[in-house]
Amino acid sequence: MISAFANTWRVPELRDRILFTLAMIVIVRLGVAVTLPGVDATVIDEWMALRIKEQGNTPGAAIGAMLTVFSGGGLQKAGLFALGIMPYISASIMVQLMTAVVPKLARLSREDGGREKINQYTRYITIGIALAQGVMLAKSLMNPGQIFYLSGIEKVGRPLVPDPSYQWIILTVLTIVSATMLLMWIGDQITERGIGNGISLIITVNIISALPGALVQAWNTFIVGAGENKFKALILVFLIGFLIFVVAAVVAITQGQRRIAVQYAKRVVGRKMFGGQTQYLPLKVNYGGVMPIIFASAVLSLPALAIGYFFRGSEWATRLQYAMSPGSLWYYFIAGAMIFFFSYFWVATMFQPSQIGEDLKRNGGYIPGVRPGKPTADFLDFTMTRLTFAGAIFLTIIFIMPGFISKALTLPSLVTQFFGGTSLLILVGVLLDVMRQVETHLLQRHYDGFLRKGKMKGRYDRLQQTGRGAGSSVIIYLWVFIATLIVVGLAAWIAR
Q1: Which residues contact 77 (CB under 8 A, 6 or more apart)?
Q2: In what helix (H) or strand (E) does residue 366 lie, and over which residues does it extend?
Q3: Are the C-beta atoms of residues 242 and 103 closer than 8 Å to each other?
Q4: What are phi and psi of 447, to 5 degrees?
Q5: Which DSSP symbol is given to 80?
Q6: What's the rounded Cα separation, in Å, for the pair 115 and 318?
Q7: Is 79 helix (H, G, I), strand (E, B) or coil?
Q8: Reported confidence tier of residue 456, pLDDT bands at 50, 70, 90
Q9: Which residue from 408, 466, 403, 439 is spatially nearest to 197, judged by alpha carbons?
């Protein structure tokens, strides 16, 4: 594996793609750190310092950890990329579900050029969602005490927005929408000219950005704050080992699949004979990926937010809001049931056994022991139903794992989010995809892959890059621009 990483720098095109991807990632993180115009960033800094002093550096809850996943801390810092990539993710989910439900969009997705039109519709919906969320965010920044992750900021004694006028709201909304579209464009550029899926990679970088803070908190909890209790250091060692085990299990389940043998009949076309070989139809154990958890979390967060907004101060509303908040028993019970529901819902909308059966029958393929046509569709549906049950159990365990560890060891959600949930599933899936693409480039140029025997499981028949890699001159200009920004930022920080 070490030799494979060394070989990546010997392939000029692969090296340029990696450097271009890293440059785009640095630009994304710089955009997170730049505060929106008209917002006093020193108020947030003073409030965070006050909160660390009062609460012992235990910021946020499970919802705060979810915000970090999609905004990378930009929402908490009121940065340019405050909304992150979430508007595009929401629009993509809406369009994908509509494609599976609306016959017109389903036909359009199978036509030549139809996918490009659907992507264009997705971008239009992204602009609408970003506009609505930008207005809500601007109004929330005018009254930051009502935002749960900025609760108590009024103790600083200065307003977060010194001049909250209509002109400021318009400027802020335009800035947020423009930054969101820029972030979406950066994701497309990474997909086309870099390595991996750009949107997924941006989310992964946002997750990894919280890792240093999580390590510091874990060190302060188990080493610095251990005192005379010598067993706390052993607990930290056990947690590291348990994390390795959980990551290995997630990789195994993510890669796990049921391979259905498909036999093709022989047919003669002219003087050539086609078919006669055996291929395999892979059915993934975790077909829905991270989507059921995202759906369940989003649906469960809506009642708590609505109750807190319409029935603020009511005793029964407070009890109900606490029961529906992350960490309560009812929350995990309802979330587990919804994960099962959305797992089967996602498979029902995205997996079409009848269409697969008809395609196999049309191309002369059949599953040994199963008649073509409807019996093949019934067999695939029955097999996928059993696989989905196992995948739903796995997703439920992964979902409740961070909350269980947080309660058992009194750790903040910033640390426990790496032991399961959305963060770990996205991290594993995206990193595996990036490694598969890098290995494909290496194997095409007669280098060894990451594994000594065989290849990593996954799709090798297509690369996500649709354009040529960025040229060396473009990469040099990018890194000179980034270095200039960093130097100017450091000079401004030292001068302040």
Answers
A1: 32, 33, 35, 41, 44
A2: strand 365-366
A3: no
A4: -100, 160
A5: T
A6: 46
A7: strand
A8: low
A9: 466
Q: Which burial class, exposed, middle or buried, applies to 467 when counting CB atoms under 10 A from its CB (0-12, 13-18, 19+)? A: exposed
CA of residue 230 relative to chain centroid, distance: 37
d(CA 353, CA 138): 46
CA atoms within 13 A on the CB side of 290: 18
Q: Which phi and psi (to 5°) does residue 76 adopt?
A: -70, -30
Supply φ then ψ for residue 265, to 5 degrees. Answer: -70, 150
Three-class DSSP category at 482: helix
pLDDT in tens, 161-172: 777 788 888 888
Using CA atoms, how far apart are residues 421 and 423, in angstroms rounded to an integer? 6
> Are the C-beta atoms of residues 311 and 317 closer than 8 Å to each other?
yes
Distance CA 482, CA 428 (A): 28
DSSP type of residue 469? P
pTM of the full structure: 0.76
DSSP state of 71: H
SS3 326: coil
Average pLDDT, the chain: 77
8 Å CB contact between 21 and 190: yes
User: Average pLDDT of 491-496?
Assistant: 80
Residue 412: helix, strand or coil by DSSP?
Answer: coil
Long-range interactions of 484-488: CB distance < 8 A, separation 24+? 485/30, 486/30
CA–CA separation, 128 and 133 (whole Å): 9
DSSP letter string, 252-306:
HHHH-EEEEEEEE--EEETTEEE---EEEEEEETTTTTTHHHHHHHHHHHHHHHH
Query: Three-state SS for 465?
Result: coil
Enter the DSSP assignment of 463: -
How far apart, in Å, are the Cα atoms of 7 and each of 15, 146, 293, 439? Answer: 10, 52, 37, 10
HSE (side-chain half, CA atoms, 13 Å) at 127 = 8
Tell me the CA distances in angstroms from 19 to 183, 201, 202, 472, one per residue in order: 18, 14, 15, 9
User: Torsion-angle region of residue 57: left (phi > 0), alpha (psi -120 to 50) or beta?
Assistant: left
Whose CA is closest to 486, among 33, 53, 43, 106?
A: 33
CB 283 within 8 A of CB 384: yes
